[in-house]
């Protein structure tokens, strides 16, 4: 196919030229063939343009480089030069705010990335960075375009470099809507959020065939890198949905919670939910007995505007909850231990999950509210050998580095290192509150008594009675909020029913907080 073949006749005037342009545009818009579109639909997938229509406000999409074609030769490429080169790029709006987008067109070379395709993506990324607006990638591509060899690989490099440069400057959201292998999987890993759709999207560095050849393991594409695997086991995906429509609707919802760039604050949505609404239900929701589990989701629901929150990494590392929500219309990031999963302990995965979330909130001017009910870090050989020290340090580092408003509330227990890590006053929380059920201590009473009263217990006539007495004494002496309150380590002990009002008043006070870190190229965070 040549350009000349496609231009009808010899247009002699401007109207003729415009007709020619419209014909070319229509050809680019339609894509390769109806058969290819039917094949895409038959796989349960939408086309790139249908996806863009779902993502953006109706009629707002402005396409860039629609008439771009590759100039590669060899392997028959010189006769196959489709417009767009397999990726549709441009911008539009989501709820009236500018958003940039690129979408692989699987109908063209399986959405595989060649040189022209890559440079289109580079351009749209540069535009998004310059304009200070979020970038959404709708991924459905087979990785590097094999026929273009090293040029395709270099094209990926340019994307990765821009992803990294844009990190913390504009929100970057990757939506996985097809098989994404090799190079196609690295870019999403560099972005802020990864969305996947069950059954139709996969991410892996090497596919099942290579895995079988190298390790002998037999596995399906979904078993290796499907949405559930990445949302529950690897943590690569933040969100997983059953269909593309729901997935893209949730992307729009997320964008509504984020600022356009790191120089703006997140959008405020006025709320009818009264700022001083009491939460008496909290008095029964959280048992005073520190060993009894409860669902922290219900606490969050009670505190935030209209009970509405968006949980990130909902099914990975469930012992910690990370969510975006609004308090009196202002977006906040909530980090909360979940006593219902592994007693809310901090382990390797929970530390990694929360560290990335805290970092994201800090980058995008989202105040952080931390709800503590944590028995400590998870002991065990697996955890130690897996590097709990450096993974736990990631969370510590993220909090210590965060300059956004930070408020922490200790609901019940807060023991040892986990207490310090979860945004204690000593690592820079702006305000710390405690409920009367709070217990801040180096460790739980039983463990503490066994260590510090070991001799008295061993020498006693009735060791068990002595142990019980010592535990009781330790609890009475240390395990209540007033030790911390007396030392100024919590700013106030509050009635749980007043928590929403206290948080909202504290956030209002901190709205104009400004803090600078020491001048440096960048820190060297634990990895
Ligand atoms: C992505 C797939 C699972 C999709 O399978 P499907 O059965 O749905 O579709 P399909 O195989 O018919 O492919 C659709 C069309 O896309 C073409 N096609 C597929 N992969 C291509 C590629 N990488 N480069 C160029 N064209 C490619 C096919 O030839 C076909 O063209 P036509 O329609 O003309 O017949 C499979 O195509 C696949 O495994 N592709 C190879 C993936 C890969 O190894 N990529 C390189 C990664 S390495 C990399 O990126 C760098 C690195 O990290 O090392």
Q: Structural class, judged by helices and strands?
A: alpha/beta
Beta-strand content bin: 15-25%
Q: What's the tally of helices?
A: 22
Low-confidence stretches: 1-5
Question: Mean pLDDT, as a whole number?
Answer: 94
Write the layout of secondary structure elements.
Elements: H1 3-6, H2 14-30, H3 34-42, H4 48-55, E1 62-64, E2 87-94, E3 97-104, H5 115-131, E4 135-139, H6 149-166, E5 172-176, E6 179-181, H7 183-190, E7 193-197, E8 202-204, H8 208-215, H9 221-225, H10 227-234, E9 239-241, H11 244-255, H12 282-285, H13 296-303, E10 309-312, E11 320-327, E12 330-337, H14 348-363, E13 368-374, H15 381-385, H16 388-401, E14 406-415, H17 416-421, E15 431-434, E16 439-441, H18 445-452, H19 454-459, H20 463-478, H21 481-486, E17 492-493, H22 499-509
Parallel strand pairs: 3-4, 4-5, 5-7, 6-8, 7-9, 12-13, 13-14, 14-15, 14-16, 15-17
Antiparallel strand pairs: 1-2, 2-3, 10-11, 11-12
Helix pairs in contact: 5-6, 6-7, 14-16, 18-20
The structure holds malonyl-coenzyme A (MLC).
List keywords for this structure.
527 residues; alpha/beta; seven-stranded mixed beta sheet; 41% helix; elongated; disordered N terminus; binds malonyl-coenzyme A
What's the short story on this structure?
With about 525 residues, the chain is an alpha/beta fold.
């Amino acid at each position: 196919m040549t350009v000349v073949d496609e231009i009808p006749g010899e247009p002699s005037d401007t109207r003729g030229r415009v007709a020619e342009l419209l014909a070319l545009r229509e050809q680019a818009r339609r894509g390769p063939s109806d058969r290819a579109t039917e094949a895409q639909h038959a796989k349960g997938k939408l086309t790139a343009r249908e996806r863009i229509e779902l993502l953006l406000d109706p009629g707002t999409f402005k396409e860039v480089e629609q008439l771009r074609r590759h100039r590669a030769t060899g392997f028959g490429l010189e006769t196959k030069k489709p417009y767009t080169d397999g990726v549709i790029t441009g911008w539009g709006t989501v709820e009236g705010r500018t958003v940039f987008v690129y979408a692989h067109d699987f109908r063209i070379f399986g959405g595989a990335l060649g040189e022209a395709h890559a440079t289109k993506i580079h351009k749209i990324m540069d535009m998004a960075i310059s304009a200070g607006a979020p970038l959404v990638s709708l991924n459905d591509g087979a990785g590097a375009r094999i026929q273009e060899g090293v040029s395709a690989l270099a094209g990926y490099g340019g994307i990765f470099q821009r992803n990294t440069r844009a990190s913390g400057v504009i929100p970057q959201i990757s939506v996985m809507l097809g098989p994404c292998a090799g190079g196609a999987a690295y870019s999403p890993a560099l972005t802020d959020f990864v969305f996947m759709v069950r059954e139709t999207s996969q991410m892996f560095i090497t596919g099942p065939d290579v895995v079988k050849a190298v390790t002998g393991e037999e596995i399906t594409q979904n078993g290796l890198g499907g949405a559930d695997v990445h949302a529950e086991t690897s943590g690569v995906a933040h969100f997983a949905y059953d269909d593309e429509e729901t997935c893209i609707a949730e992307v729009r919802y997320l964008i509504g919670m984020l600022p356009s760039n790191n120089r703006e604050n997140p959008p405020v949505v006025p709320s009818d939910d009264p700022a001083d609404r009491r939460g008496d239900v909290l008095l029964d929701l959280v048992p005073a007995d520190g060993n009894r589990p409860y669902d922290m989701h219900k606490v969050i629901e009670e505190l935030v505007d209209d009970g509405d929150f968006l949980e990130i990494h909902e099914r990975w590392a469930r012992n910690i909850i990370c969510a975006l929500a609004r308090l009196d219309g202002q977006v906040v990031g909530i980090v909360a231990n979940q006593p219902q999963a592994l007693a809310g302990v901090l382990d390797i995965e929970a530390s990694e999950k929360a560290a990335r979330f805290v970092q994201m909130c800090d980058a995008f001017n989202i105040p952080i509210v931390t709800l503590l009910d944590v028995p400590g870090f998870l002991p065990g050989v697996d955890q130690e050998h897996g590097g709990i020290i450096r993974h736990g340090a990631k969370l510590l580092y993220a909090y210590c580095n965060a300059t956004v408003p930070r408020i922490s509330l200790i609901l019940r227990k807060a023991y040892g290192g986990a207490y310090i890590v979860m945004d204690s006053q000593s690592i820079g929380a702006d305000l710390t509150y405690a409920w009367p059920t709070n217990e801040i201590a180096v460790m739980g009473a039983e463990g503490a008594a066994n260590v510090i009263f070991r001799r008295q217990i061993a020498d006693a006539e009735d060791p068990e009675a002595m142990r019980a007495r010592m535990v009781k004494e330790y609890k009475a002496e240390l395990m209540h909020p007033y030790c911390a309150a007396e030392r100024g380590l919590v700013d106030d002990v509050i009635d749980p029913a007043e928590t929403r009002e206290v948080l909202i008043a504290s956030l209002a006070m901190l709205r104009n907080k400004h803090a600078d870190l020491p001048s440096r190229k960048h820190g060297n965070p634990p990895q």
